[in-house]
Amino acid sequence: MATEPYFVIPAKPGSSTVTITFEGRKIVVPAGISVAAALLAGGVGVFRTSIVSAAPRAPFCMMGVCFECLVEIDGISGRQSCMVPVTDGMAIRRQEGSSALDVSEGAKDDV
Amino acid sequence: MTSETADLVVIGAGPAGLAAACEARELGMSVVVLDEQTAPGGQIYRNIESVTDDRQDVLGPDYVAGQELAAAFRRSGAEHCGGATVWNLTTDGVVDYIADGPKTVSGKYVLLASGAMERPFPIKGWTLPGVMGAGAAQVLLKGAGAVPAGPVTMVGSGPLLYLLAWQYMRAGVRIAVVVDTTPMTNYLRAVPKLPGALAGWPDLSKGLKLLGALRKGGVKVYRDAREVAIEGRDAAQAVTFRHRGGRIELPARLVLLHQGVVPNVQLSMSTGLDHSWDAAQHCWTPVTDEWGRMATSSLYVAGDSRGISGALASAVQGRLAALSIGQQLEKLSDLQTRAAPLRRQLKRYMAIRPFLDTLYCPREIHRVPTDDDVMVCRCEEVTAGQIRGYVKLGCLGPNQTKAFGRCGMGPCQGRFCGVTVTELIAKERKVDCAEVGHYRIRPPIKPILLRDLSAPKDEEP
Amino acid sequence: MQRTDMYTHREKRLTIVGGGLLGAAIGYGAAKAGAEVTILDQGDNALRASRGNFGLVWVHGKGTTMPPYVDWTLQGLRLWPEFQEELLNRTGVDSGLENPGGFWLGFSEAEVEKRATALEGINKNGTKVPFEILDRSDLRNYLPGIGDAVVGGSFCPLDGHANPLMLLRALHMGLNQLGARVVNGVTVTDIQHDAPDGRFVAVADDGTRWSGDRIVLAAGLGNASLASHLDIHAPVLPTRGQVLITERLQPFLHYPTNKCRQTKEGSVQLGSTAEDTGVDDGTTSDKIEWLVRRGVETFPALADAKLVRAWGALRPLTPDGYPIYQESERFPGGYVVSSHSGVTLAASHAELLGPWVSGLTQTPPEFTSFRGERFLDTDSSFSNGY
Ligand SMILES: Cc1cc2nc3c(=O)[nH]c(=O)nc-3n(C[C@H](O)[C@H](O)[C@H](O)COP(=O)(O)OP(=O)(O)OC[C@H]3O[C@@H](n4cnc5c(N)ncnc54)[C@H](O)[C@@H]3O)c2cc1C
Ligand code: FES
To answer: Which one of A8, A66, B269, C379 is most buried, by most CB atoms within 10 A?
Structure first.
């Protein structure tokens, strides 16, 4: 669900953009920025729910210190969105509580 | 195993690290600079090499000054390794890091220049979406050109808060209100420090200009605010605070908090070498000699990770550390002569610190929450009341409260609760912070994927 | 030693040196039995195995060279569930005991065979410790996601795990509620006897004196130097164990294994090394990497988990790895206790040793096996299995 964005990134004519998705919703953002910046400007209010009380959380420090900005990126949960640059086609999901590992048959062979 | 060696390994590519690298290269040392960010600049000069002209205008001349340093660094011939997460460090200079797999570099000397982080602002509601650090908002501005979409509420104290407000004004952002928590009494206490600060006149006048500009811009400022809290269930909705004896509540959707920065000492603490409690800045700092060397180890510290000093002083500290290392490595014989002008510079840059430290010393109630329900450990959701309970049970320090209540065990590894917990315990026990001590920091210095550590290390060519 | 009447009216005052899992459990049991307990413990940064251990509540594979220890451990396991209930009811703190059975995992056929032989040896005079040897595909039924590097393992239905930190906190809360006194920040350096202020006086490095009628040395590694004051031989030496812990993860590992377990909170513990590095509880990157590789080989999905912390802790180990439980003959009322299974044996330490050190029960006959003097036998050689 999109909320009113907390931040905006004023458009610059001619600058390149990439398209990412959050929970399946498409967001077009400038290339080169962090995933967290992209989501904050893309109307994402809640990035994750906390591990103990499932409270909503969003980025606090934007410099890799607080771990409030964790999301699932391309299937890998628990990624620090403030430290990861956006790439075209990136699929992002909210992180619900702690990360989940895939221990199903077959998943194990790709290491 | 990818194992490199260098005369000097620098961790952190901010002003201190970049300046040290330049100086060391001039002395003929081999230098490797590691940083988690991909491009050099650190926090203050973040994105310095690629920032657009219009954004430069918003960010102001101090920021642009970093471009010169970054360019000099690029020319210096130091090896820059961006995207490198340092996870382990030994006192004799071995640095383990992840950059496309596990790597190790051994420095004859290592300079820790990992800078500062925003001081935690543990108040009711500070974990709600819609609340973030002013420093974080500035990162958004520098890194992405992002500015608040609606009116923004700025709460706290200290130069960074005012600078950001000024930058926002220039960017046309609507500042709903500035809730200044600087205690009035701090002004009185800071006055005696003023003569010393005058030596740092340019800094001081800059600060005054920022405040003046805010006032002229018609920004509503509440001064001497205290007992700030943020209200809201699932997101920030209002900010409340005491002002002149009454309680004020203002609607607020985006709240930026700031009450100064503290050294990021995770790296230096992980070595087990001594740190002392800085009672003026209310934070831990590594114990070093005048050049920044920690005991007799191969480790030096410079810049804000040695004690908050600002960008210009940090750079000079970096140079001084490089000179001292150069002398150890017999790259120069006239250390004192070369150091003298730098020392004079440093003295000038540092002249304003006692004044700033006194003026912007955050209120105790905003550092050491008295409200039992305030979340101290954001990761594991441990409250001030719980910590006090463990102290009553006999815990003398943060390592015991951590064992009893998981405070500091989450992914931020105690960065965001460390100083708060020490101060809370000290107050509850009625002893000094130094006696309470700090978390024992263990590797990895940042959480790392097991995948990255288990990857086979490349063979040496 | 003659007991003078002067002390009899205060016979109940029990001093315990060491507030780790051993001291706290024994103190808790003693306080329940009516003793006036004072626990002396060091500060925030003490060498404290209780804060760094792996949390297994475990019997299978233990006691291969000392049958009485198998029985002692089995008894400990039997007492645990009720003990956990009691602590929970008293303090509201959950020590996290779960005993679904536990797995030992082997990385080579030879290793698994050796294991099977050792386990059979324990049961040679009748089954004491039930176990099963499993191959990889059997294992996968219980431990989905196990890697191909694991060739087989053993399972014992009695085993389990607990949260050692919550256990320690529960014990301390329990002590508090029972009126016991826990004094932190005290380093005991000397024990005096029949001083004017008490039959046993523990003297701290800052000169403070703590007197009592009975004394228990449960000072972990500190016992090595303190025990001689009670004329007991306690050669406890540090063996360093490095342990790793991940971020919290959704539950996926429903049984503890000897190399890896998922805590109730969700984090996965990977351990541990055994190193002879003296009194150094640091960590090293080569061992951390080794533990990570072994963890990822055991459960390949762990590659996507984040390592949050590594630590080193010193196991207070005797030369044969078995405990010392001994009352001093020269100074009755003075006891030395050292055990490397503070979690596994927590319930016994509280329920059985607590009353014993309070002078309320006789020394169990099997404790002759646990005397420190066994290490003085120059004809024996010892191996503690690490
Ligand atoms: C890596 C590792 C893994 C382990 N895994 C398990 C497991 O899975 N299951 C299990 O059951 N056990 C395990 N253990 C063992 C378990 O941790 C110990 O048996 C238990 O902690 C011992 O408790 P203790 O109280 O004797 O020692 P400690 O916990 O070391 O406590 C000793 C206390 O005495 C204090 N002290 C020392 N000297 C003095 C002095 N002079 N004056 C005052 N105080 C003093 C210290 O400060 C400390 O608090 C493991 C241990 C390690 C290191
Ligand atoms: S916002 Fe703090 S780590 Fe990303």
So the answer is: A66
CATH of the domain spanning C10-56+165-236+321-376: 3.50.50.60
For β-strands B221-222 and B175-180, DSSP reports them as parallel
Per-residue pLDDT tens over the stretch A36-77: 999 999 999 999 999 999 999 999 999 999 999 999 999 988
pTM: 0.92
Report the CATH architecture of B120-259: 3-Layer(bba) Sandwich (3.50)
Q: DSSP 3-state assignment of C75?
A: helix
Q: Does A38 touch chain B (CB under 8 A)?
A: yes
The pair phi, psi for residue B244, each rounded to 5°, is 45, 50
Contacting residues of C for A97, CB less than 8 Å apart: 250
C250 with A104: Cβ contact below 8 A: no
**Chain B residue with the nearest C-alpha to that of A63:** B136
Closest-approach residue (CA) in chain B for A66: B412
How much is the mean pLDDT over chain A? 91
Under 8 Å between Cβ of C13 and C333? no
For an interface test with C, the pick among A79, A108, A109, A110 (most C C-beta atoms closer than 10 Å) comes out as: A108
Q: Is C102-158+237-317 a CATH 2.60.120.10 domain? A: no
Q: How far is CA B91 from CA C205, C240, C271, C282, C350, in A?
A: 30, 20, 25, 12, 42
Listed in sequence order, the residues at least 6 apart from C199 whose beta carbon sits closer than 8 Å to its beta carbon are C3, C7, C193, C211, C212, C213, C214, C333
Q: Tell me which residue has its CA closest to atom 21 in ligand 1.
A: C50
Instruction: Name the DSSP class of C162.
Output: -
Q: Cβ contact (<8 Å) for B378 and A66? A: yes
| The Cα angle at residue A8 between residues A73 and B213, in degrees rounded to 5 | 135
The answer to whether the CB of B2 falls within 8 A of the CB of B460 is yes
Segment B401-456, tens digit of pLDDT: 999 999 999 999 999 999 999 999 999 999 999 999 999 999 999 999 999 998 76
Q: Which ipTM did the prediction report?
A: 0.94
